[in-house]
Specification:
The strands form 4 sheets. The chain has a 6-stranded parallel sheet, with helices on one face. The chain has a 6-stranded mixed sheet with strand order 15-16-20-17-18-19, sandwiched between helices. A 5-stranded parallel sheet has the order 3-2-1-4-5. It has 15 helices and 20 strands. The mean pLDDT is about 95. The chain is α/β, with parallel strands linked by helices. Helix 5 packs across helix 9 and helix 14 packs across helix 15. It has 3 domains: about 90 residues, NAD(P)-binding Rossmann-like Domain (Rossmann fold), CATH 3.40.50.720; about 200 residues, Mur-like, catalytic domain (UDP-N-acetylmuramoyl-L-alanine:D-glutamate ligase); about 140 residues, Protein-Tyrosine Phosphatase, Chain A. The structure holds uridine-5'-diphosphate-N-acetylmuramoyl-L-alanine and adenosine-5'-diphosphate.
């Protein structure tokens, strides 16, 4: 924070804004809070940290800028698309909660970013570190906002960082930084894929150890000196990688066979890669890999991520509501053998469904499209044999059951019914969590 007699401006009063207000109050700082949402509820939680007179709701006005030298911005705010652009032009000091976290110079910060797999990898690492007896907490884009981690003295702090959080962050020092993968996402905000890639790479800049996914062409390995990597074709090339032998995938540590896919509880090849990524972080910290294996075998899937939650009479229902982009749905489709009925739809983030069409063409028997962009999806994914369009997710569940029953007449093996929307949930739900919970409720109601 730059020295100033003016109050700090906290921009945004969501989860992050509240954690910033809490932190600033605790540190006796003078601040005002702004949020563009005129009807934002000022909860008792908020009132604990900031009085009503110090909260300004509604459009952020140009004249407010002169009242402050320091601005702390929440991740959900797109600086470029609003009047807040002026703040940048006036060369005021703009920070994020991650910058404040960084100013406190914590030891052993581990940063995880990427387009898909951030939460899974973050939670696997947290799980392993706990099993190794370390005092550890994960936060940031998952669970607690970053500043909440300062409330206690953790031996390891794991920060899941989204592109929204990294965009305005100046610097994050860490002991290990990992980008799980980079595929196009959030381009409505970041405009170009190139810009999005650049934002993701910020995480490597001040990391002691840079951890590279060798299989991802968008992770610019040549720009970094790195000792740790995962993935890749040659076992000797990386610390951990996946190789297939007689129809079974195995995780290798260098040349040494470590874990069979049959010994883990997670579904899908992408989750084997997530385990490789997590183990590479553990190795970069100099911790014991052999002791970590047992805890990996016990790690259960995170809710709404390839969550197989109900099976009866050879029909298995899988909730992958967190899949909000093309690539995660392709991974979901590729994770399943046997007949797959795919439920997809919501609010579209792209017009380019070519790669998804190719994946669905080979593996999906019936495609059930729902939500705002169902027509757009139908126009773009023509090659699946059976396509059904419905308005809502509850209707999609009923259609999926009917299709499964039809398939079952001639087919003895397991049938997978997968919700992996490839779209955000905001057309009909508050969040992907709400969508996933609703989906599970609809399915369980069918069997009552
Ligand atoms: N908003 C306004 N006006 C304001 C402030 C916010 O309209 O003045 C809107 C934003 O546009 C957004 C919503 O309110 O739609 C929330 O924005 P926020 O910045 O207040 O968000 P928080 O509640 O602080 O939650 C954020 C992350 N959300 C976003 O970045 C959108 C949460 O990640 C994160 O858990 C939390 O900080 C704590 O660190 C959620 C998320 O959806 C899981 N992340 C996206 C993702 O994973 O794809 C990036
Ligand atoms: P994030 O936090 O980056 O959104 P999650 O672990 O929450 O990642 O998973 C989001 C979606 O991506 C889920 O649908 C999940 O099944 C899928 N997924 C998880 N890991 C990967 C990966 N390595 N590659 C592609 N998709 C993945």
């Amino acid at each position: 924070m730059e020295k100033s007699n003016l109050p700090i401006a906290v921009i945004g009063l969501g989860k992050t804004g509240i954690s910033i207000a809490k932190y600033l109050k605790k540190n006796n700082q003078n601040f005002l809070v702004y949020d563009t949402r005129i009807n934002l509820e000022i909860t008792n939680e908020i009132k604990k940290y900031v009085s009503k007179e110090n909260i300004i709701l509604g459009d952020f006005k140009k004249k407010y800028i002169e009242d402050h030298d320091n601005f702390v911005i929440s991740p959900g705010i797109n600086l470029k698309n609003s009047l807040l652009n002026e703040i940048t032009n006036k060369r005021k000091n703009i920070q994020t909660d991650i910058d404040i976290f960084n100013d406190r110079k914590r030891d052993n910060v581990i940063c995880i970013t990427g387009s898909n797999g951030k939460t899974t990898v973050t939670l696997i690492i947290e799980h392993i570190l706990k099993s190794l007896g370390k005092k550890v907490k994960a936060g940031g884009n998952v669970g607690l906002p970053a500043l909440e981690l300062l409330e206690d003295n953790y031996q390891y702090n794991i920060l899941e960082l989204s592109s929204f959080q990294l965009e305005m962050t100046k610097k994050i020092n860490c002991v290990a930084a990992l980008i799980t993968n980079i595929t196009p996402d959030h381009l409505d905000r970041h405009k170009t894929f190139e810009n999005y890639i650049k934002i993701k790479h910020k995480v490597f800049k001040n990391s002691k150890n840079v951890i590279i996914n060798l299989t991802d062409k968008n992770i610019r390995k040549n720009d970094y000196k790195y000792k740790f990597s995962f993935g890749g074709i040659d076992k000797r090339e990386s610390n951990f990688s996946v190789h297939r032998e007689r129809e079974v995938n195995y995780i290798y540590q260098g040349l040494k066979k470590l874990i069979s896919e049959k010994d883990i509880l997670l579904i899908g090849y992408h989750n084997l890669i997530n385990i490789c990524a997590s183990l590479t972080v553990i190795e970069s910290l100099g911790l014991d890999i052999q002791k970590s294996i047992k805890s990996i075998k016990e790690f259960k899937c995170v809710e709404h991520r390839m969550e197989s939650f109900y099976s009866k009479e050879n029909i298995t229902w899988i909730n992958d509501s967190k899949s909000t982009n093309i690539d995660s749905t392709i991974s979901a489709i590729n994770s399943l053998d046997n007949f797959t009925i795919l439920l997809m739809g919501g609010k579209s983030k792209t017009n380019n469904y070519k790669s998804l069409e190719m994946a669905a063409h080979n593996k999906v028997d019936t495609l059930i499209l729902f939500g705002e962009c169902r027509k757009l999806l139908k126009e773009n994914i023509k090659s699946v044999k059976n396509i059904i369009m419905v308005k809502s997710l509850d209707k999609a569940v009923i259609e999926a059951m009917k299709s499964a029953e039809n398939i079952r007449k001639n087919y003895q093996n397991n049938i997978n019914i997968l919700l992996s929307p490839a779209c955000s949930s905001f057309d009909m739900f508050k969040s992907y969590e709400e969508r996933g919970v609703f989906f599970k409720k609809c399915v369980l109601n069918l069997y009552r």
